[in-house]
What does this fold into?
Amino acid sequence: MRAEPSRRIWWRWARVSLRAMMILVLALGAWLGWLTHCARIQRDSVAAITRSGGLVFYDEQSWSPLAGECGRLLRTNWLVDLIGVDYLSHVTEVALDHRATDSDLMLIGRLSRLERLSISDSSITDAGLRHLRGLRTLRQLFLHSTPISDGGLAHLNSMGRLQLLTLVDTKVTDAGLPYLRGLRCLQELDVPISIAERGIRSLQNDLPGVKINRGLPYKN
It folds into this structure.
């Protein structure tokens, strides 16, 4: 008769262990599913960006302008070959040139760990910048020689970690500067030379720690 309570205790322990194991398996499956989903999104985005002539760098790569090539991934090569780099690393930098379009920005907006984005001599529009609103980890944004205007800056105010912003050779005017007041982490801002001193002073009052440089006007 004394063995009966022990059996009940063992049975309860086994049931609890089984439930815990099932929860663990379900949680692991959900995590693997999420990881696979994110890796596929990044892989497909990278493939499309590189097809359009863009350059993509992962968090374990470094860019050497003098050598004209990017560094190797630090991950073991056999592991990268086995499961793919997008399961092991995140894209942190993208550079686009004159071939960039608003469709490319839609793909870039899916790279949730992006820290640096450079776009030059491109025809991207204000509407295209809307796709970048989810890039909350972005620290540096270079928009050089593009036709973006004041309305496009409204899509940048969610980039709370942005430290460097270049708007040289764009259509941005004094009227667009108030959209940047919410960028509290901003440290340096490059604006077209056509921006008036009054506009710069007004923004400087809202962001006193920002260094503001004036560059070249937009070329039609």
